[in-house]
Amino acid sequence: MTDDVTLMRSVHDMWEALDPVPVDLADRVLFTLALEDMEFELMRLSESLAPIGARGPETAATMTFAAESLTVMVTVSDAGPSQRRIDGWIAPGAALRVELRTARGVQETVADADGRFAFAALPAGLMQLMIHPTAGAALPLHRPVATPPVQL
Amino acid sequence: MTSTTSGDTGLAVPSWELAAREFAAWRAGDPAALDRLVRVLTPVLWHVVRAYGLDRESAEDVVQTTWLALVRNVESVRDPRAVMRWATTTARREAWRISRAGRREDVAEPETLDTALPPVDGPDSAVLAADTARMLWRHFAALPERCRRLLRVIAFDDRPDYATLSTELGVPVGSIGPTRGRCLDKLRGRLAADPDWSGRRD
């Protein structure tokens, strides 16, 4: 007969084999925890479309993130060897300040009145977007909203 | 992770103790300890959250949210030895809330899980582990949902908070221990009747 400890060990190993933790989940958690200011709302990934033409020249993936007051749709595409481009669309449309973090540093832009923004020439790896309350924008935010980190 | 998981297994240092050590070091000013704490506890949180039937994306959200909650409310963890329980309880509460709000899938679908297994031409040990996992899964899947959830939670968190667990499983606090025993007995009984299982190990 298998004792409780051995059996629980088998159940443990079974789940590790059947449903492994995503390999980069801890890295993504640490990427978020590295933010200096913890006062923000973390968005949920509400939809993710698989890359089109994976590994081909037209590789593109679309993700939608949702916060209480807004959603942001992000399309990631290839822009040359190991370079990525991001096209984003905030809804409802508003000229909000958008910050993008990668391992290489922070970039900033301001969305147009329709909520569209873009970042070009990004390195592969983790990136995180943070949308900030912005004076004069059509959408008042109480605090910044951040996407969970995603792999470019 | 396999060697550092659970006091229940009698192997290495239990996760809660590792977590306590790193949490205390981080609080004492060692920033690298947070990195190690996250690497020790994230797999535990993942399995605990997935036990509630959340899809992978929702489960990742809950894990991220749990870590943010811990860093934001770090003062509320007064005893480092309680950090793992704090984190798993927070994660389970959130997973339970979301699973009841309807954003879930039934992850206990063998077909779904089969596709997640490593390819058969992987390293020998991986193939062996996958075969064993598949064999065990056939019997595990036949257990009542309550057993499946309880055993998965306890397999990764051998010191769960019984009060919240009792609400979520719909059993009195005093019944969790006996329920766990009955669930294990059911599983053991099924395995004992499977010649493939007894033939492959021990």
Largest interface: A-B, 33 and 54 residues
Tally of individual domains of chain A: 1
Distance from N terminus to C terminus of chain A (CA atoms, Å) equals 49 Å
Order of helices and strands of chain B: HHHHHHHHHH
Number of domains of chain B: 1
Radius of gyration of chain A, Cα only, in angstroms? 19 Å
Tell the overall outline of chain B.
Answer: globular
Query: Could you give the count of β-strands of chain A?
Result: 11
From the N-terminal CA to the C-terminal CA of chain B, the straight-line distance is 23 Å
Instruction: Supply the number of helical segments of chain B.
Output: 10
Number of contiguous helices of chain A: 2
Stretches with pLDDT under 50, minimum 5 residues of chain A: 52-57
**In which range does the helix fraction of chain B lie?**
55-70%
Percent of residues in β-strands of chain A:
35-45%
Major pleated sheet of chain A: 6 strands, mixed
Gyration radius of chain B (Cα, Å) is 18 Å
Brief write-up:
With about 150 residues, chain A is of the alpha+beta class.
Verbal overview:
The complex is a heterodimer of chains A (152) and B (202). With 152 residues, chain A is an alpha+beta fold. Chain A has one domain (23-151). Chain A is 16% helix and 43% strand. Chain A is built from two helices and eleven strands, in the order ααβββββββββββ. Chain A has helices spanning 4-18, 25-33; strands at residues 41-42, 44-52, 60-66, 71-78, 83-91, 97-102, 105-110, 116-123, 126-132, 145-146, 150-151. In chain A, strands 1, 6, 7, 9, 10 and 11 form a six-stranded mixed β-sheet that branches. Chain A has a five-stranded antiparallel β-sheet with strand order 2-3-4-5-8, with no helix packed on it. Chain A is elongated, with a radius of gyration of 19 Å. Chain B has 202 residues and is mainly α. Chain B is 66% helix and 0% strand. Chain B is globular and about 55 Å long. The two termini of chain B are 23 Å apart. The model of chain B is unreliable at 1-10 and 106-111 (pLDDT under 50).
